[in-house]
Design a protein that fits this description.
Arginase, Chain A; 10 helices; alpha/beta; eight-stranded parallel β-sheet
Length: 354
């Protein structure tokens, strides 16, 4: 462990303005978070573009001694500055997307819709390149990269870079939705299309393992069935039915983790949790994981011998002014994801406080 600076008390109130109140620099961090304030295509209600700042603010209230993973912060964790250019791009793309979303999707032959879709797709491509570029820099330094969205389209560039370096990469997706729709509402990079895009555009991704899925379309089910095992879906209701019949959550978690390849990226949509934990997310759905169930699943993965090489947390959205519940939950999920990644790699990575 790195030595602590004189006078630093991890149990005192946060005084730094960085992630979790720390002042760790990215170049001294074992985990570096890429904030992506972008949510052009969220089709029910927007707001997740404010997720990175919301989670950052709430993270100042997180106690640093985690009961599962210990003092995660000591290994060095940080977040890059929230990019103002991406936030501006999100607002412009969202304004262009609104008429298409209100119409239920791009109407064939409607030139206005076609121009709007092109503008949104171009903006989304800019975000993809930005995330991929930042991920390359972090990976080249030997740190673990993470994305904090934004909508669930945000991590594509990160997954692309990880798969290039780890062929056969597995993805553990915790989510209420399958996100296997093709160009949902006409947008190529829709938040509802992230894993359709991953599986059709990134051939080096080996397998997608989905947990908590409870809203799904007919064509998405067909996509899963046609995948010949490349997609393994643990539907939420079927997991509950097995629990009702006597299966323990611990045994189910071991089965889920066993389905993953050796190297894993965790893609965490906050709506994979029960909606009382994320009431203001873009598309909340009844059912889902409790915080304790999520925590146990991550701990089983961390102890399995498989390596978490990256992760993302998306779709956290602030509530009305003065309501910070979603951010508080999101910040604690983010800390658990960090602990899981470090534990899975033997906690050998070391950083230092700046």
């Amino acid at each position: 462990m790195p030595s602590l600076p004189d006078g630093f008390d991890p149990d005192a109130a946060a005084t730094g303005d960085g992630l979790f109140g720390l002042d760790t620099k990215p170049e001294a961090s074992a985990i570096v978070v890429i904030p992506v304030p972008f949510d052009a295509t969220t089709s029910y209600r927007p707001g997740t573009a404010k997720g990175p700042e919301h989670v950052l603010e709430a993270s100042l209230q997180v106690d640093l001694e985690d009961l599962q993973y210990g003092p995660i912060w000591k290994h060095g964790v940080s977040m890059l500055p929230v990019p103002k250019a991406i936030a501006r791009l999100s607002r412009a793309a969202r304004a262009a997307a609104e008429p298409v979303i209100r119409a239920g999707g791009a109407v064939p032959g409607n030139r206005s819709h076609q121009r709007a879709v092109a503008k949104v797709d171009d903006a989304s491509e800019t975000v993809r390149r930005h995330v991929a570029r930042e991920a390359r820099r972090i990976l080249d330094r030997g740190a673990i990269p993470a994305v904090l969205g934004g909508d669930h389209a945000s991590p594509f560039g990160l997954i692309e870079e990880l798969a290039e370096r780890h062929p056969g990469l597995g993805i553990l997706q915790i989510d209420a939705h399958a996100d296997l729709r093709e160009a949902f509402e006409g947008f190529a990079w829709s938040h509802a299309s992230i894993f359709h895009n991953v599986l059709t555009r990134i051939p080096k991704v080996g397998r997608l393992v989905q947990v908590g899925i409870r809203d799904v379309g007919a064509r998405e089910v067909e996509f899963i069935e046609r995948s010949r095992g490349r997609v393994r879906t643990f539907f939420d209701q079927r997991l509950r039915d097995r629990q009702f019949a006597g299966a323990t959550w611990s045994a189910l978690c071991k089965e889920i983790v066993k389905a993953l390849p050796r190297e894993v990226h965790i893609s965490f949509d906050i709506d994979g949790l029960s909606p009382e934990l994320c009431p203001h997310t873009g598309t909340p759905v009844p059912g889902g994981l409790s915080f304790a169930e999520m925590s146990h699943l991550l701990e089983v993965l961390a102890a399995s011998g498989k390596r978490v090489v990256g992760f993302d947390l998306c779709e956290v959205a602030p509530g009305p002014r003065g309501v910070d519940w979603d951010g508080s939950v999101g910040a604690r999920v983010l800390y658990k994801l960090m602990g899981c990644a470090l534990r899975s790699q033997g906690s050998r990575r070391r950083g230092r406080r700046g």
